[in-house]
UniProtKB/TrEMBL annotation:
GO MF term set: diaminobutyrate acetyltransferase activity
Any Pfam family hit: Acetyltransf_1
Domain N-acetyltransferase: 28-182
UniProt EC number: 2.3.1.178
Family in the record: Belongs to the acetyltransferase family. EctA subfamily.
Pathway: Amine and polyamine biosynthesis; ectoine biosynthesis; L-ectoine from L-aspartate 4-semialdehyde: step 2/3
GO BP annotations listed: ectoine biosynthetic process
Name by which UniProt lists this protein: L-2,4-diaminobutyric acid acetyltransferase
Record key words, sorted: Acyltransferase, Transferase
Gene3D superfamilies named in the record: 3.40.630.30
Keyword Acyltransferase: yes
PROSITE patterns: GNAT
Length: 194
């Protein structure tokens, strides 16, 4: 009998680099979040500077109302990766990536890219043609991640200021630049995920 857990577990895409003792395909599962993941996600985000900490309640809503557009990576019962996102109601052809968090010991193994690719391959993302996100100018890891996705998909990445430091954050936060990646073919993502 296939358990709900197994049904919700997503395959890792080919070309992964998840083969050492810290993160391996054998013991790493990518899956939709559930409400009981909330506290572990909140704790992971807190350990992943410079991410903003959202409320525990926000993470619970992401794990429930927005579970189709969020993903966790779990290893040995611990949440080691998290991507939150949604389809903006005003622009449903876009998939917005809100936060990407990978535990320090799991970094540089393509876990972030694998989670985003798995998310975009879901049937729930059918019709999405672009990934959008916002990144501060100094977050080199994040820019490398999104430029790498654009390169892998062979599509452009357009960058433009979205939320400006003084106008939108009253000077309390650096300007967030929007990265818009696409257009891409959702059917191709599904085929790649097998
Ligand atoms: C950003 C973050 C999610 C990347 O996770 P990751 O699993 O290590 O990323 P990946 O292994 O999938 O790497 C994707 C690409 O980014 C590059 N990259 C990753 N970390 C990097 C760093 N610190 N500096 C430069 N490049 C980096 C990788 O080399 C790879 O490039 P490639 O496609 O050319 O090979 C992780 O460092 C993190 O959680 N940081 C703290 C929180 C944060 O800043 N989140 C992003 C803002 S939403």
């Amino acid at each position: 009998m296939i358990s709900d857990w197994q049904k919700d577990t997503e395959t890792l895409p080919p070309g992964k680099r998840l083969d050492d003792a810290i993160v391996s395909t054998a013991d790493l599962q990518l899956r939709r979040p559930v409400a009981t993941d909330g506290p572990a996600i909140t704790a992971l985000v807190a350990r992943c500077a410079p991410l903003d900490r959202n409320s525990a309640y926000c993470n619970l809503l992401q794990c429930t109302h927005f579970a189709d557009s969020c993903i966790v990576a779990e290893r040995d019962g611990a949440i080691v990766g998290w991507v939150s996102g949604h389809r903006p109601p005003s622009d449903p052809q876009d998939f917005f990536v809100w936060q990407v968090a990978v535990a320090r010991e799991g970094r540089s193994k393509r876990l972030a890219s694998s989670m985003i690719k798995a998310l975009l391959a879901r049937p729930a993302q059918r019709g999405a043609t672009h990934l959008i996100t916002t990144v501060t100018d100094d977050n080199q890891a994040s820019w490398a991640l999104f430029h790498g996705l654009a390169r892998d998909w062979d599509v452009p990445l357009e960058r433009s200021p979205l939320f400006e430091s003084s106008a939108h954050f009253a000077g309390a936060h650096a300007t967030e630049y929007q990265a818009r990646i696409g257009p891409f073919d959702h059917g191709k993502f599904q085929a790649e995920q097998g």
